[in-house]
User: Fold AB hydrolase-1 domain-containing protein from Ceutorhynchus assimilis.
Amino acid sequence: MYRNFSFIILFFSGFGLVYSKELANVCESYDGYFTDKNTNPECFYDPDLDANVEQRAVNHGLLAEKHYIRTEDSWILITFRLKNLNGTYGKGVVFLQHGLGTDATSFTGNGNKSIAFFLAKQGYDVWLGNFRGTDFSSSQNLQNKQFWDFSYHEHGLYDLPANFKYITAKTKSKIYYIGHSMGGSAIAVYFSTKPEEALTFVKYTTFLCATTYMRHTKGLLNFNIINNLYALLLNWIPQAVLTGLGFTNISGLESMCFASRENLRVCTRLNEYVAGSGVGYKMSPEKFLLAWRAIKNLGVKQMLHFAQTIHSRDFRMFDYGPRQNMIRYNSIIPPPYDLSKLPTNITLIYGANDYISTKEDTLYVFNKYGKRNWEVYEIPYNHVDHFYDYKYADKAFFPLLLKSINKHI
Ligand SMILES: *[C@@H]1O[C@H](CO)[C@@H](O)[C@H](O)[C@H]1NC(C)=O
Ligand SMILES: *[C@@H]1O[C@H](CO)[C@@H](O)[C@H](O)[C@H]1NC(C)=O
Ligand SMILES: *[C@@H]1O[C@H](CO)[C@@H](O)[C@H](O)[C@H]1NC(C)=O
Ligand SMILES: *[C@@H]1O[C@H](CO)[C@@H](O)[C@H](O)[C@H]1NC(C)=O
Assistant:
């Protein structure tokens, strides 16, 4: 009788043990994804994978507040501010701004080595911006076909100033700005268009793999076939239609990637063809899904503006074609953004293996526009390794960032 009873207890506690353990969702090898993940010792449960910014913050001993910020042209953008569990904020405002196709979650995808959490743990007051068009933005005043009618021009002239006004009013403190990729393009637009205004908000700027001139872009983004396709599209489809298009959900691609080992290999190579590959760090298989899911919202006009930037070898306003340009800009060719208006003190960080924002283009900007207190640094990364690397983070990347912030904040 007692024996039977203990058997039942044993049975149920065993049952509980199995089911209180979360199901493995990532693997340390790509092959692992095609095995039974729950019995494969290479696979484990990453609580961050399906978590949003707020949940990830909690997973790493922090809280994320949401702030609703209105732009001058009536978009509502959600900006996150990290705080300690005891409700206190850090000191020294650091504002992180994401790049194309992603949002603030990109700064939270590397566990306790996520840029956002790392800086908050170092004691800084970390804010994370979200551009219009992301999951953290809305605009009631727009018709569907106007929704995607923006590029890094609008990010720089509306989204950033709205954030800066709000944050400086709230904290009574100027901002240390870190812009990754298009986050750098946007602040370059702001500085080149309204330099005095920008300086009232921004104490210091770090361009992290930022894109301005894209004369040496390599890999998939510079395939002629893609650029020709854009040209073809522009000839055959009215711009008004193109600039009204965007994608918000590319998650269907994920099941395609995982349909077979061969497909997955193509998907993982895609990261290298687009973002860059070479010596140094390679994204680890357990980060693949985090990285893949960080790509979400893409506006066609944003992509067109970048294609034009690559094609024209210039950093200039959106090209609407000669007739429209004449009406909008009073010039057949779109006006360039004047990088000589960038501040006297900035830092440029480029990845040695970055195909998108290349070493050559960074040095071109540095040599052409550099002022007395400009600094430039190389790290062994491609375009997105900052978000997923464990190998060089403590050696190459974070010390550089900390030194710069401490010096300039
Ligand atoms: C709140 O937490 C932070 C981070 O753990 C700590 O540095 C700070 O001293 C705490 N402040 C108070 C008032 O408890
Ligand atoms: C950071 O995360 C890693 C991996 O999850 C863990 O091994 C390490 O102990 C954590 N470090 C801190 C300081 O929390
Ligand atoms: C995106 O599409 C997938 C199917 O491909 C669907 O399961 C998911 O719910 C969609 N997500 C959103 C936010 O609409
Ligand atoms: C950078 O330069 C601007 C304008 O010249 C100045 O206002 C600002 O204080 C400087 N920032 C630092 C950290 O030196």
Summary: The domain at 24-408 is CATH 3.40.50.1820 (Rossmann fold). Confidence is low (pLDDT under 50) at residues 1-20.
